[in-house]
Amino acid sequence: MEPLAHQLEYLSDRWLSIASETLTALTQQAEDLPAFVISESLTNAPSHLGWPDNVASWSARFDGQGIVVDRTFVPTADWSRQGAYQAALIAGQTIGMNVPEVAAFALRETNHWFGDAAVSETWRESDESLVRLIGNFRDHMARRTVENPDIAHRVSALGMTRHIKELFDQGYTVVERAISPEFADALREETVRAVRSHQNPSRSLNGLLYHGLVFERLVQNPQLMTLIDASLGRGAVIASISALCKGPGKGVIPLHTDYAQVPEPYPDYSMTGVGVWALEDWTVASGPTWIIPGSHRLKRGPKPGENPPPGVAIEMPKGSVVYFHQGVWHWQGDRELPGERVSIHAHFNRGILRSLEPKRIDVQMLHRNSPRLGEMLGEDDWFDKLSADGRDYKRLEHMIRLNRFNDEGVAAILAGAA
Ligand SMILES: [Fe+2]
């Protein structure tokens, strides 16, 4: 599954080839660099990468003159990592691993989801120029490293098979504690700050992505993105990233679907989905979202005066996300508690649709993130690329291949074959 020319799949043959080129260039630029070895060995890699026993290993040796890269693991390397491939991919897509706060964040969120033993990293050499070189190398690779395209493998590695089945059966699913409580607290503080600075009497704010690094990190959450890939296909784009602060009182968003201006009957496939992040514990009294399970099968919105089927309150702990899609019926509950319920709404559309909020493509933002962020901002989009020379067939053909691989994986999960 070859990604676009400027992208790389983690530890693929081309990743190793670019790693060799990058390390060669970096070592040639450096002065007084000691000889070193760096190495990784990751288990449960996706089978399409073709590693024996799905163990992905590599090392790079610098003898003071040149770089040699091969597929052996060197446990005594000056810098080494071992662990599970999907867990290691989080750091493998993180830019800024030389910045203590960034590295601590990546490690905390990885450990939160996969457990403390999922990945271990060892430094045996603390030469300042070597530490800086390895950091620069990892940054260069991370900003080109894509998400694991094998969704069947990814869902299994993330432990989300149940969620995918629920999503298609009920029209929604809840991923409990998808982020750490610390990250949820930081997000709540930053969200309140952003909403306050906006001074909108409705206590809501669109375009939240552009209000800080914490939001860039949240929208790339691997668990939510996996639900979005499964329901909307690859190349799904941000419709809007919104903040909402809901005070005490009646809910103000009545029963509806998110299919604005979509003719009925709705299609059999999903066109739009929303992940709502709980930044405090959600209970009936806190005024949560309510959803009517299975209502996506009605393929229409509620009619005026209609007596709807019963709904369920989405109760979930802080740091969880509820994702609903495909025109499922939902509404905002009444809040009985004092204070505000602060939530972030990550609304995505299938890649063939337009967005609600305009995309603001900032090269600096793309540069400090993996291609995952660019994908949701339409960078891999096969539309809007027509030039005087014609269509961008390379991008189109890549997205057709990626979506076929993705669709086959989802079908296998739903059939119980993955
Ligand atoms: Fe909605």
Descriptive account of the structure:
The chain is of the alpha+beta class. It folds into two domains: 8-146, SCP2 sterol-binding domain (Nonspecific Lipid-transfer Protein, Chain A, 2-Layer Sandwich); 151-414, q2cbj1_9rhob like domain (Jelly Rolls, Sandwich), CATH 2.60.120.620. The chain is 34% helix and 19% strand. The chain is built from twelve helices and 16 strands. The chain has a six-stranded antiparallel sheet. α1 packs antiparallel against α4, α2 packs antiparallel against α3 (100-114) and α5 (151-158) runs antiparallel to α9. The protein is globular, with a radius of gyration of 22 Å. It starts with 7 loop residues before the first strand and ends with a helix. The model has no long low-confidence stretch (mean pLDDT 96).
Task: Give the tags.
2 domains; five-stranded mixed beta sheet; binds fe (ii) ion; 418 residues; Jelly Rolls; alpha+beta; six-stranded antiparallel beta sheet
Whole-number mean pLDDT: 96
Terminal-residue CA separation: 18 Å
Q: Tell me the CATH topology of the largest domain.
A: Jelly Rolls
Largest sheet features = 6 strands, antiparallel
Share of residues in helices? 25-40%
Total number of beta strands = 16
CATH architecture of the largest domain: Sandwich
The secondary structure category is alpha+beta
Radius of gyration: 22 Å
